[in-house]
Design goal:
Blueprint (H helix, E strand, L loop, with lengths): L1 E2 L4 E2 L4 E4 L4 E4 L2 H11 L4 H11 L4 H17 L3 E2 L2
Antiparallel strand pairs: 1-5, 2-3, 3-4
């Protein structure tokens, strides 16, 4: 998966989809995931990166991560390859 090429993002967590006019905000971890998606990193690599970087419970993170990716898909912000 990767972030669609037309999606605009800022370092402050602002995400804008010019195709729909929808805008969203994300926290620092959400933006880090977005940044890695922009670099076409595989989902399992992104997951490992976040788990290695932050002190989080793996089971809690897995659920939150899967929910976040599902939201990005629902709002057409990422392409499935």
């Amino acid at each position: 998966m990767k972030l669609k090429s037309n999606i605009a993002t800022s370092e402050t967590g602002f995400i804008f989809n010019p195709s729909t006019g929808d805008s969203f905000s994300a926290n620092a971890v959400g933006m880090e995931i977005i940044s890695l998606l922009k670099k076409n990193k595989p989902l399992n690599e992104i997951k490992k990166h976040i788990l290695d970087k932050y002190n989080v419970d793996e089971a809690v993170f897995e659920k939150d991560y899967d929910d976040y990716i599902a939201q990005l898909q629902f709002y057409n912000l990422i392409d499935t390859m």
